[in-house]
Fold this sequence. Notes:
DNA-binding
Amino acid sequence: MTVSLRELRALPGFDDTLLTEGCPTRVVLDHVTSKWGVLVLLALSDGTHRWGELRRAVDGISEKMLAQTLRTLEGDSLVLRDAHPTIPPHVEYSLTASGRELVDRMLPLVEWIARNADRMLPAAP
Amino acid sequence: MTVSLRELRALPGFDDTLLTEGCPTRVVLDHVTSKWGVLVLLALSDGTHRWGELRRAVDGISEKMLAQTLRTLEGDSLVLRDAHPTIPPHVEYSLTASGRELVDRMLPLVEWIARNADRMLPAAP
DNA sequence: GTGGGTACTCTCTATTGGGAAGTAGCCTGA
DNA sequence: TCAGGCTACTTCCCAATAGAGAGTACCCAC
Lengths: 125, 125
């Protein structure tokens, strides 16, 4: 198991430019770990959802940010947008195979935080 | 292994309020997955660093954001600040035991993104 | 012809982030 | 003697970004 950034950079295929500003890894990492990106991906870990469902599932997100986040994640091939040209519109969002792999690696992190968040925060009011 | 948000919420100790706005998990998650939070934690995965080293290690960070990020992560008990009251000042930053556990769960995610980022982005110029 | 349903998109304002200069006090070199 | 450097921040200002809320498109039921 990789235990540090140094080790990660030493793996075959990587070098010291990993995570420098503007490199592809940083770009995708920024999208995925953005405030709403994480929550949208988590919501989709449950399976396919429609726009309105996502809006309700991701507590606090505005319509603008939901649209923007979905477009970004779709651009990164993590989310699949399946639009049925009906009236009223019907659009379904789901994880791609890549998205599924990524979420599988995100869930342990989120689970650890969920287990430990309470004792970490300073004097929750 | 937990494979979805639904399953995570079904685990003992959790419920449907997990990840609602303002809940401790969301707060810590926001800190940890903020643009600079991830990169600072990754930099510290290599071991203890001084301020100037971190500034150079985290490509593109401003002094303002480095200070803010370090204070936030320290408040979350993820980073330890060890200041020696000398002139000129000498301050060392390292991961706490919690921080180490968290980074152990973050590295697989980052490694996966590093391996796949190139083919995910649309038409890299 | 009016209202409902869905998925956006636009506009305006509040918040956030970057850059650069300022701060503290001792120590070194000229 | 005294300017300048060392280090870890902090502050200020302005540009970029995020968010709230209203607007749009289109057809159907009433």
